[in-house]
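Lecture 7, part B: from sequences to assemblies.

Below are the input chains for today's worked example.
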Amino acid sequence: MPVLRARGIGKAFGGSRALDSVDLDVPAGRVLGLIGQNGAGKSTLISIMAGVLAPDAGAIEVDGEPIVLSSPATALAHGIVAVYQELSLVPELTVAENLFLGLEPSSGPWLRRVVMRRRAREILARLGADSVAVDAKVRTLPVVQQQLVEIGKALARDARLLILDEPSAVLGRGELDRLCALVDRLRDAGIAIIYITHRLDEVVRLADDVAVMRDGHCVLHRQMAGLSRHDLIEAMLGRRLAMFEPTPASRGGRPVLEVSGLQLPGSSSDGVSFDVGAGEIVGVAGLTGSGRSRLLRALAGLEPVAEGRVTVDGAEVRLGAARRSMSRGFVLVPEDRKRFGLVLERSTTDNLTLSVLSRYSSRGVQRRGRLARVAAGLVAQLGIKVVDTGASVQSLSGGNQQKVVLGRCLATEPRVLLLDEPLRGVDVGAKAEILEIVKSVAARGAAVIAVSSEFEDLVALTDRIMIMRDGDIVGELNGDDVDEGSALAAATGGLS
Amino acid sequence: MTHAAVERRFDPLLDRMRWAVGEGYAVWFVVLGLAAYATLNSDGFLTSKNIENYLGQVPVLVIASIGMLIAVLAGGIDLSVGAVAKLSAVLISGIADGDFGKFVVAVSLAYLIGVTVGAVNALIIVRFRIEPFIVTLGMFSILEGLVLAYTVRGRGSVPASVVTWAYEAVGPFPYVFLVTLGIVVLTTLWIRSARFALRLIAFGGDREVTRRAGISSTPIVFASMISCSMFAVTAGLALVIRAGVGAPTTGDGLELAAITAIVVGGASLAGGRGRVLGAVGGAVLLTLVDNSLNMMRVSQYNQGLVRGAVIVLAVALFTTRRERAA
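Predicted structure of the full complex, as structure tokens:
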């Protein structure tokens, strides 16, 4: 008997149907991969199962007992715990305090800190995370460990059904292996798991069963065995799509960007040197911490630079100030779009025109009409799906938010477009569109540098791939050499 | 994040110092340094008379700062602290009018008013979802008005026996100081060991997460605002029993001094971060600045200048900037 059985779940917001009679079974000790494009209804579905939203129709059973999930507290009481992409930890509290927040071991009004720490260590041991210090403040931990603490919170609450909402979105590749090992461990402990992701690799690797959502329907729900990645993509899109084909290597024209001996302070390397031609898209691969993001930030003027010479179209650029870099044609699409890419409270129009305000102002006064026209042009050009361009960008899906960031950058008419994880947290459909946009920017003669932890994204996007390790460029792949094995070998320092 | 992790050095002494700075304890080094400087540059500073005098002055700001810390830890702020202290001082002196029996009644009344003010602040914050900053700013204005309606020049007096007690001391330690020390120890223990305190700090650190953990916010807002007001009443009491008369200028700017003290002591005004010992250190430092400037005979006009510079410097040196850690 499945831990959770949902039948005929329906939910409408206003006039639009978010979910239409969805059936779902999640047996104990199995991993259900839940996939679908943004807007397909995954979030609504898990919100209902976590007790955050009430369904309009349908029935939910836990262990065969019909129940009403009226609040997150009732879901918790039935052992259903959701771990969201935005981690719910209090950064200033310690690991142990976070694990037991709300159910602290105590006698009377007093905490029993010794018991709390001991039980925290037990939970971390069950997760195979003995290295995490229970007294460390969560703010001081790397994201990977924070995620372990978040999953630990679920164990502290005796979870029987664990919902993991895109757990891999914040992780690098090495860390992903550990996450997979952890999911396996939890499955073996008999916990039912719903694993939501955009990465088909992970579904293939982890899921015992799969459920594919499209337009509020569950279009495919069966065992994973016998299904290929193509079957899954087709089910998600509802049509066949030729994608992820490596682009024929377009020879870059005259160099737009020339970097020689660029060295970041505190880096032990001799500095990096490379050229990027007009119309060329260069990928940068490497493990987290290899210096790929720092390289982009340095070019964008966001990171101090110790030494090196950088020229754009033959003219030297002094790095170290974002304003100066931007005026010379650099623009960065940052990795964390919510923190550094968007002003979340402001509208789509405001965000799109943020970087070109001075261009469309006269004597310090914004020309609202012209700004609105610029924004409308970008919305149309990039195919941003937005109902009201005056509403806050928070309401947009991940893919559309990313297009807004991209649009803001394109408005500056960049010579060098810097992309840090441009396809992270973006669904398959939007991914293909973003690929097209970036390629069209390059086709107009700009130089593009893209960093990604997803090798297949790099292959789809770029003409050649540079590999970084410890702040150095240690290899380059192009044409037929491009394969993930050799990239990983170079990035990790060899296979030997 | 990853770069910080890579570049982190493991020097034990440096790590201890970082810890002290991170927890807001580093302010105590500044206190020691300033005391040493004042000792060398004035004849009057390191005398038993001045030490006793200083230790008698310190409780007011220490107590007000602890109250402010509780409000700020819970993610709020209380700008009515000075006004509450002032109202308490004026009422206690006015009602007591030199009589001990009436003095006891007046003190009880002051605490009753303190609880009411805190509860009203909390009620408005919770019920109408208005920022604590605005709510308590309004309360500040109302209470200031009430004080001036009651008296313009100060009224009545604290009984002589109480004033005498307020200046008595064991060795160099005035009773008032020892009582304050007790309050510091008790609040430190409470914050460290009470389940409610943990939830209060968690709430200040992240409301949504705390709510999702099944912890309700209303009791936390009420408890923090009421405690803050009660500490403010206590600060007013400490002021008036040494001054003898409650004047409408008593406690002017106490709320800003308390906010400064806790920030110097490492608290974050965003909430969820701060230590009692840090806040106390901040209060001790600010009082020490005033005292040593007097002892070094710095003119009143220049005192403000020096005080401001010391505060900004202390905050710049000894508070960690969270954004830069990320």
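Note for the exam: Chain A is about 35% helix and 25% strand. Keep this in mind when comparing with the next example.
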